[in-house]
Amino acid sequence: MAVPRRTTAAVALAAAALAAAPHAVAHAAPPAERVEQVAAAAPAASRCGPMDVVFALDDTGSMGGALNNIKTSINAVVGDVVSASGGDYRLGLVTFKDSINVVTGLAAGNAGTVTGYVTNVLAASGGGGEPEASDEALRTAVSLRPAAGIPQNADFTGPWRSNARKFVVLVTDARPGGFDDAFTAADQASATAVANSALAAGVKLSAVYVPTSPSMTPTIAPIMQNYATTTSGVYVQAQADGSGTADAIRKALSDCRRTDVFMRDQTTDNGVEVNPNGSVWASPDIKVCPTTADCATTYQPPVGSTSWIHVRLNNPGPYGSGTGAGTLKLYWVNPSGSTVWNEATGGDWTFIGQQAATVPAGTTVVKVPWTNVPGPGHFCLLARWVSANDPMTHVEGANTAQNAKNNNNIAWRNVDTVRVRPTVPGRTSFTLGNAVEKEIRTDLLFTSPGKPFVGAGKVVVDLGRELFERWQASGGQARGIERVGESAVQVLDPKQAALIGIAVRPGERFTAGLEFHGGEPGGEYLLHVVQRLGDEELGGVAYQVLVEKE
């Protein structure tokens, strides 16, 4: 039916007012040496903080009443987002029948685009009968899906920001039917899978059901309720004539309650961001065990085995309360100093697995299987807690150490157990890299905060030809170090030795071999190898050296 529309001038005025609200665009993280500036640049206080919001609207003929209701209130709906986010928002809009129409992907400060389309273009029409592609519309929004190969007019672009409250609001009166206009058990499973994907991405799905065909309610309502309950979203049923739809959307977007699950960087860490306590690469809350049973921290997973990563989640931290719900995600890399993180690709990190979890007050240990553990058998581990009610406080950049220091739901454990015999050396490695955005002159420090291995035995570091030449070309400065081969040095100072000023370009990685010779049978020693930039640690590895009997 014909829908009354506002005048173009009125629409332009309202859109301009919303678009003019101040907003922040996520920038790449600054270099590592500027951590204190990152702390000062925390998001401005607002009710919700940064918000990424996508509207997924059924625009079939039966939705006329609901869409009219949205039209009359879209400026208020979007204005709520602008206000609650402190102007730091991104909006997306998709409409759907049996296919998907991407109006806009997530883009900063695009209130005018969304309000203009809803007011001037959005209309109920067609549909060809129930069901509709609501599950696929959600999949497109959650997964930032391109259009290739599916009935979708354009790519849905992002990204979702890790430090934003992430919402998708679905409005429909129909069952999910994929793209084939039929509802089967496979479509119900598809809807469940979409909810689980949103949970893993930290996206809150809220569902507004418009009961235009009450006989369908017993089937549709549980599916839409599951979207909300799985992801900590909101489920609301509007009136059959569509009244109350916009109010339901505003209710969903007002839900900014905050939980605060955290993992410790050190035993003294209480979740404060930015962590003021120094090294962030030896978390006591991560370890690997041979089974789901607890084990000693010195266990080293055999290559090819299935082992279990145990992660302790603490609740609450200082920034929220209540039971946490989200997904724990785990990654590995060979023992390294500076490592590059990229949320889309993992950067230097390889994905291991994930586990959805509910975390009540206290501590909860989540156990994730690590199947077919890869060689060479020495690893660093990264844990990330992804939750719709507990987003990152600071935008994740390329520098893993900085991300872990800034966010209490990221933890990094670089602890390697090396087994040695008095006449058989133990071998492992250390990778030196550069996650900063410019060439750096980095130091490699060898320290012994526990019982030193140097003295009882010796430590030889083979830099490899290229890294050795880099060190030499940078001046060949060292402290407590002696050259013992073409590309190898020996650590002489049991407390603190260093290779100084090695030039490393952005993205470069060099792997040095470490050999531990000798030691007393039954002895347990500790060596820290730390990559530094000035006074700041870019990352490090704690090598627990165990000398076994022959």
TrEMBL record:
InterPro entries for this protein: VWF_A, vWFA_dom_sf
Segment forming the signal sequence: 1-28
Keyword Signal (UniProt): yes
Keyword Signal applies: yes
Keywords, in A-Z order: Signal
SUPFAM superfamilies per UniProt: vWA-like
Domain (VWFA): residue spans on this chain: 52-253
The species this protein was found in: Actinosynnema mirum (strain ATCC 29888 / DSM 43827 / JCM 3225 / NBRC 14064 / NCIMB 13271 / NRRL B-12336 / IMRU 3971 / 101)
Protein name: von Willebrand factor type A
